[in-house]
Amino acid sequence: MTEKSVFVIPQSKGSIIARMNDSGISEIAKLDVPYHSKSIVTENGLIVSLCFGTKPKSRRLRIFDKTGKQLIRKTEYKYASIACKNNAVYLGGRYGSKNHEIFAFIDLEAIDFTVKEVDLPVPSMEGKSIDDILINGNRLILVDNIVYPKYLFEYDITIPNKPVHKETKELPNNGTYEHIYKGDINDNWMALFSSSVGMGGAFQHISIFGKQDATVSFCVNDMDLRSPPVEEPIIDICLLNDYLLILKKSEIAYIDLNKEITNENIKHFSENQRSWDKLLKIEDNCLLLNEKEYELLRGKMI
């Protein structure tokens, strides 16, 4: 039986430390982090979680051992994103007082809980934030968000605790007040899910970069009779090989990225009968989540 990496499944009444094997998902222990959280598990078994909430003290960085025992918590920054390679944990967000973006890491190879800041390649700007961190192999990409211009900052993490800036790419602007919610990446593709709002209405956008570059946009709130028909809002996205999964309130849909990337080529996969509201990628698999339960995505996209 082949066992894969340990991961955390967020749930409202106690999140779950789990691992996946050939027979499915095995639950290991409970973890005291809320549903609205992001967690990673390092190579040496430590769990680092970002816990989100409306109150300042709810937004905590917490570190646990492999049994779920809390070792430390920190509240000094407004972290929004987390990722790891081996035992280096990368953090993005904004300063609590300075109100501009921050990129930092914690080196847990030697169990050092010190947060070490990393210089960004452009001057800091008020209102900006690093809202996602994408890792593929030795590439780490920071998604710089909210205030235009928006950037992708690429770092080489061949040596995980010594990130080296390699490239800065300015992102095209998809609309007024565009906000990037989430990114995803694999060997062939990168996807960014964002929203914008203007006089023409509220829109959502999925920008694809890879073998072909394209953006598909959807009007989700018509404020102008000249706007396109209103569509059901997207909740979440996830890249699986050459497919992009799209989660909506009523359905799960997908795009085959080897075909022309257009709204017309978005296909229905299944009904969302259990009110799933989050997609969690675990290596080459995807979990469907809501606050009370989870399920491994099954079936083939044709």
Keywords:
globular; four-stranded antiparallel β-sheet; 302 residues; 0% helix; mainly beta
Question: Could you give the topology of this structure?
Answer:
Layout: E1 3-9, E2 15-21, E3 24-31, E4 37-41, E5 47-51, E6 60-64, E7 70-74, E8 77-85, E9 88-95, E10 101-107, E11 115-117, E12 129-136, E13 139-145, E14 151-156, E15 164-170, E16 179-185, E17 189-198, E18 201-210, E19 214-221, E20 234-240, E21 243-248, E22 251-256, E23 266-271, E24 278-282, E25 285-289, E26 294-296
Antiparallel strand pairs: 1-2, 2-3, 4-5, 5-6, 6-7, 8-9, 9-10, 10-11, 12-13, 13-14, 14-15, 16-17, 17-18, 18-19, 20-21, 21-22, 22-23, 24-25, 25-26
Report what the structure shows:
With 302 residues, the chain is an all-beta fold. The protein has no helices and 26 strands. The chain has strands at 3-9, 15-21, 24-31, 37-41, 47-51, 60-64, 70-74, 77-85, 88-95, 101-107, 115-117, 129-136, 139-145, 151-156, 164-170, 179-185, 189-198, 201-210, 214-221, 234-240, 243-248, 251-256, 266-271, 278-282, 285-289, 294-296. Strands 4-5-6-7 form a four-stranded antiparallel β-sheet, with no helix packed on it.
